[in-house]
Amino acid sequence: MTGIKDFSQTASENGLVGNFNASEGMAPSQVNDSMREFAAVMARMYGDIGGEGTTTGVADAYLYDVRSDPTALVDGLIFRAKIHVTNTASSTINADNLGSKKIRVFDKNGERDAEAGNLQSGAIYTFLYNASLDGGTGGWLCTDPTFIIPDDLLINTDHATAYTLVEADNNTLHTFTAAANANLTAAATLKDGWFVRIKANGGAVTIDPEGAELIDGVATRVIPDGNVAFLRCTGTAFITVTETSDAAKTAANETSISAHETRLDLIEAVVKNRVQNPVTAASSYSASADRQITPLDTSITTKQLNAKITVSFEVSYERHADGMFYVKRINPDASSVEIGVADSAGSRTIGFLGVNYDTSDHASLTSLSLKIDDVVTNIGEYEYQLWVRGSNQPFFLNRTVTDNNDDAYERGSSVCILQELLV
Q1: Please, are residues 17 and 238 in contact by the beta-carbon 8 Å criterion?
Q2: Angle CA(313)–CA(314)–CA(315) in degrees, nearest 5?
Q3: Is the separation of the CB atoms in 318 and 401 below 8 Å?
Q4: Among the CATH numbers 2.30.30, 2.60.120, 1.10.150, 3.40.50, which is that of 151-243?
Q5: Phi, psi of 119 (to 5 degrees)
Q6: Using CA atoms, how far apart are residues 239 and 225, in angstroms rounded to an integer?
Q7: CB distance 129 to 78 below 8 Å
Q8: 54-84 as b/e, with b when 16 or more CB fall inside 10 Å?
Q9: Closest CA to 129 of 98, 89, 155
Q10: What is the pTM of this model?
Q11: Are strands 353-354 and 324-330 parallel, antiparallel or unpaired?
């Protein structure tokens, strides 16, 4: 089964990946299979990072069925899972029967085993595999463990307004019942190892160090309402670890899931956004130095900002004169721009591809194959037109100059195809 980790970050290496086929010259009958396979890959990735699965097994020895079905434990393998039972000690997880590996977390002292209570029943956690963890034997890093420090073990002070934390507040709990600032005394005064817990319980709390000192490498740190921050002084700066409330975790999960659903909807809409305009009627156009081939005018409405559109023309024609083809785009505001046109060259005729011609009225039809990629900024309807300029002569679409009804003369067909690409 193809998973997202099977793909390369180099686009040209993704021609044939498992059941996904995007090889050059692939048969048309394989296109729908590849589209369905790619949609399945995205759905499995969504299942992994959306936290839709729940662990099984027993406490401290978890099992999990990874949606993308990896065949080996490799760096960067990631999933989010709901824990079915709270851990009671150091724990392992066996993902897809690829072997039990320790669940590791990081605290102020560095990497360590997960401890009792770091994984709470019903909570969703992110697990990231890396071979360097657990002394190089490999492990699953839980990036968002629950750190347990009971409130009743800390002296609590409520604050309804701004408060400046001082050295005597070391190892205490400060609950802010309204949006306010938690101002910090200079780090040198508080000293390395100074520690407090700050709870936002009525509004966001802004932790503001003194002067130019930093917290987590920035000037201030905002603790959203309903969350708790563990604040530690290093003697020169401050660092925090934030414990997210269950309600905040649920909201974050819902936001993440909604964003992925929106992206999947966009992918489906873009893949389906293809317009084909076949032209079988024969037409002739009177002499003109700049002629629009109107039956091939084709419009597409983009689904995304900064969309990339592949514009293809396949044209059967005859013309007894030199000239140049070019493509004109009509924007949603009715303004126009010529695409693929050479820079101004004095009195020369400029365009994208030259017109081929001969002087026989019943010569074989000439074929034009033109394909360009265009990028448009805004979402809206864009029309693409094929033009020919130069040598004030007639133009004949899908027919020869002379169009008698016998086998010395030919009829053809033409088409314009527009396809939006995912960006």
Answers
A1: no
A2: 110
A3: yes
A4: 2.60.120
A5: -120, 110
A6: 19
A7: yes
A8: ebebebbebbbebbbebeebeeebbbbbbbb
A9: 98
A10: 0.40
A11: antiparallel
CA distance linking residue 297 with residue 275, whole number of Å:
11
For residue 312 the two structure tokens come to: 């293809």
Cα 288 to chain centroid, rounded: 47
Q: Are 52 and 43 in contact (CB under 8 A)?
A: no
Distance CA 99, CA 77 (A): 14
Unique residue bearing structure tokens 């084709």:
298
User: Could you confirm whether domain 274-421 is CATH 2.60.120.1340?
Assistant: yes
pLDDT tens-digit profile, the chain (423 residues) = 555 556 555 666 556 656 666 667 677 766 666 666 666 667 777 778 888 889 999 989 999 998 888 889 999 888 999 999 999 999 999 999 999 999 999 987 789 999 888 999 999 999 999 999 999 999 999 998 987 655 445 678 999 999 999 999 988 899 999 999 999 999 999 998 898 999 999 999 999 999 999 999 999 999 998 888 889 999 999 998 765 555 555 555 565 566 666 667 777 777 788 899 999 999 988 877 788 999 999 999 988 888 899 999 999 988 877 788 889 999 999 999 988 776 666 566 666 666 666 666 556 788 888 888 999 988 899 999 998 887 777 888 998 888 878 777 788 999 999 998 887
Token pair recorded at residue 394: 């007639």
Distances (CA, A) of 80 to 54, 133, 186, 187, 257: 9, 18, 39, 37, 12
Q: Quick one: CA dihedral 395, 399, 400, 405, positive or negative?
A: negative
Residue 383 phi, psi (nearest 5)? -110, 135
Question: In 10 A of CB 132, how many CB atoms?
Answer: 12
Q: Which two tokens stand for residue 198?
A: 């700050």
Q: How many CB atoms lie within 10 A of CB 265?
A: 11
Residues in the chain: 423
In angstroms, the CA 230 to CA 154 distance is: 12
Please give the C-alpha separations between residue 176 and each of 155, 158, 398, in angstroms, as whole numbers.
14, 6, 78
Three-state SS for 351-400 is: CCEECCCCCCCCCCCEEEEEEEEEEECCCCEEEEEEEEEEEEEEEEECEC
What is the amino acid identity at position 15? G
Number of neighbouring beta carbons within 10 Å of residue 139: 25
